[in-house]
Amino acid sequence: MMTDTAHQDEVATKIPEDVILRVNHLVKEFPISRGVFFKKQVGAVQAVSDISFQVKRGETLGLVGESGCGKSTTARSVLRLLEPTSGEVWFRGARDDGSVDDAVDVASADREVLRALRRELQIVFQDPYASLNPRMTVASIVAEPMMVHGTGSQGDRLERVKNLLEVVGLSPEHTNRYPHEFSGGQRQRIGVARALALNPQFMVLDEPVSALDVSIQAQVLNLMQDLQDEFGLTYLFIAHDLSVVRHISDRVAVMYLGKIAEMTDRDTLYDRPMHPYTHALLSAVPIPDPTIEVSRKRIILEGDIPSPSNPPSGCRFNTRCPKAETGKCDVDEPPLTELEPGHWVACHFPEVVQVV
Fold it and tell me: What SS3 class is residue 347?
């Protein structure tokens, strides 16, 4: 019988050097308890249910879906801001000389290893108004990760803060200001500067522009792309706006009720989607051409999203799917299958539909 150490070594050797992150069978459940004094678990919310994917070094993987489908929970479980119920999250960093490190399972790493990994794995949160401490100055906010990890002297940290503010498009003279003195877009730039403080390799962008005005969204997205090119960053980009995802992502994974329904490169997903859920999502994206927009057929999904505490049997989309067949879709769960090179679909009846 293979030991746990031997299994980890085997998995680590199977991760290609160009892959920075590989997620295997990730599960995250939140217990449902009843009782006042003697709480008893009576169920669980299956926020993320046995998903697997990988992210290549230097690319942006977009994770999209309706609110409540498990996108943010997936991202936070990958970073272990939330403890995964089960599964593996293999991270393979790189050294300054360009060589790669051995893969480490973030999900099972002990406290010391996890602390070291925090330097390489960072996140930009969705709400720039809630993610910055209103009692701290910009200098303190951006320098805090460096202080926690004991990087540099106080003077070195202040100089690093000023450089980072310039990198994200803010004035170094703003170091002594407080978050309430900035607009939403400027606050998000401060959050980006904080995430860059430790020179990370992998960043989660958890709907970084959804709380911003439309006029500011493009500026922040362009900033993220410029930073990716300059520092060689890898992104996991969480969003529900498919137009935004198309602008920034190299590959896209579509989630529904804790499962990945479809995953492929950006152009293939928008030009040749195969999953009925993806068809419906793309049909709701407005087209800036009145002639094309009038002739398009909207796909309206009937019914409500099932509860993640009691998901339907078989395919989780079968209760709302216009192509579902009784006795098949409501009984057998379709596996995520590679139907074309790099195009993965979890559907019993996949079909290419032109929705744009």
Answer: coil
CA atoms of 143 and 157, how far apart (whole Å): 6
Under a CB-based contact definition with an 8 Å cutoff, are residues 197 and 160 in contact?
yes
Asked if 278 contacts 254 with a C-beta cutoff of 8 angstroms, the reply is yes
- What does the alpha-carbon distance between residue 9 and residue 3 come to, in Å, rounded to a whole number? 10
Separation between Cα atoms, residue 2 and residue 331, nearest integer Å: 34
Residue 94, beta-bridge partner list: 100
Q: In what order do the strands lie in the sheet with 19-34?
A: 40-56, 19-34, 86-91, 104-105
Of 88, 300, 121, the C-alpha closest to 204 is 121
Q: With left for phi above 0 and alpha for psi between -120 and 50, is residue 25 left, alpha or beta?
A: left
Whole-model pTM?
A: 0.90
**For strand 60-64 and strand 234-239, is the pairing parallel, antiparallel, or unpaired?**
parallel
**Within 10 A of 5 (CB to CB), how many other CB atoms are there?**
8
Residue 263 CB partners (closer than 8 Å, separation 6+)? 53, 251, 252, 253, 254, 336, 343, 344
Residue with tokens 């746990």: 4
For residue 321, give the H/E element and its range: none
Report the pLDDT averaged over residues 117-142: 93
Rounded distance between C-alpha atoms, residue 222 and residue 224, angstroms: 5
Residue count of the chain, please give it. Answer: 356
pLDDT tens string 332-355: 999 999 999 999 999 999 998 776
Measured CA to CA, the distance from residue 100 to residue 123 in angstroms comes to 22
How many CB atoms lie under 10 A from the CB of residue 276? Answer: 25
